[in-house]
Amino acid sequence: MYALNCWYVAAWERDIDADTLFAIRIADEPVVIYRRQDGALVALENRCRHRFAPLSLGCREGDDLRCMYHGFRFAPSGRCVEIPGETEIPELARVKAYPVVARHSWVWVWIGDPAQADPALIPPAVGLDDSRWVLRHGQLDYEAPYQLINDNLLDFSHLSFVHRSSFGAGMNFAYQRPRVTRLPRGVRVERWSVPRNVNVSLRISGAAEDNEVYSSYDFLVPGILLMFSGVYPRGTQQRLGDATPRMADAVSSNFTSQAVTPMTAETSRYLFSWGPNAGPEAGTQADAMYQVMLMAFGEDKAIIEAQHRTMRAGPHPAPLPTSADRAVLLFQRLMRTMSPGGAEAREA
User: Is the pTM of this model over 0.85?
Assistant: First the structure.
């Protein structure tokens, strides 16, 4: 089951130029994305109404998209405006048109009820052009359900084991529980650490052993991670107590935006950016962090795909949760309410 009334990340905006017909499945919906002549984005059902050929194998004609199987031509609204050899076009000759927005360097598509597609619900990710940060970016395709990737990102206790060779995370991630807070459309996860027990990337970005590191991420529907990590003088945590430190007071900091998009029931796309705050050495730091990031995310991919193969091999018991799964369970419950048949559907 998928949460439908939310914004999914389909692509990096820079990957869809004037000549691109970009094909992707989102929550098992075939989608083609292209640009009109004025540069505005269009997202249509990637399946001709006639005999279901992919429109992504078609061609643009002005702002329209022509199927190159039997020549049906569709307007950006999804309405068929030409059937070769026919003088009348039936009302059923149309494909779905999905709300689509370019924001924060990503292309966001709304798969659910178009009447509920509110751009204000797009999570506040950080775009590649944000002058506060020097970011590197990429993406990975998984042979695994998106829920397993979400679970991985909601429980960082795995850092102590999966990422020993990359992040070099200490055992505090496994033994110390973060503070988890419910949000209207997600959860917030916060923790304090010391650099010698944190990871290589934070030391690259300026953390020393006499500093403390605060990290906080919001994990938002349907699978968007937005995380700030800041290095602060030793004693900051004790001085602030439960208060949140100011970003401006950090000695150095970094930010990552990550998006998990289900393509099918067993395949997912994972898009990410990461980098330090802008400064004289930020480019070098960003390059070094990027290499660590690629290694770490490859480690995640290997363990999650292996997990999925094990689960798919035959019947298995339900997962056995621990206290580290608090954020996982809260988010899973929220996603169930937003899936067809959940609380959101019953209230509609």
Answer: yes
- Using the CB atoms, write b or e for 67-96: b if 16+ within 10 Å: beeeebbbbbebebebbeeeeeeeeebbbb
Residue 190 has pLDDT above 60, yes or no: yes
The torsion angles phi and psi of 325, rounded to 5 degrees, stand at -90, 10
Mean predicted lDDT score pLDDT of the chain: 92
Supply 58's token pair: 């078609």
Q: What superfamily in CATH does domain 136-338 come from? A: Naphthalene 1,2-dioxygenase Alpha Subunit; Chain A, domain 1 (3.90.380.10)
Q: What's 7-121's CATH class?
A: mainly beta
Residue type, 276: P
DSSP 160-220: HHHTTTTT---THHHHSPPEEEEETTEEEEEEEE-GGGS-HHHHHTT--TTEEEEEEEEEE
Which 3 state secondary structure label does DSSP give 274? Answer: strand
List the beta bridge partners of residue 35. 41
Q: How many CB atoms lie within 10 A of CB 19?
A: 8
- With residues binned 3-state (H G I as helix, E B as strand, rest as coil), the percentages for the chain, rounded to 5, are 30, 30, 40
pLDDT digits (tens, 9 = 90+) for 5-29: 999 999 999 999 999 999 999 999 9
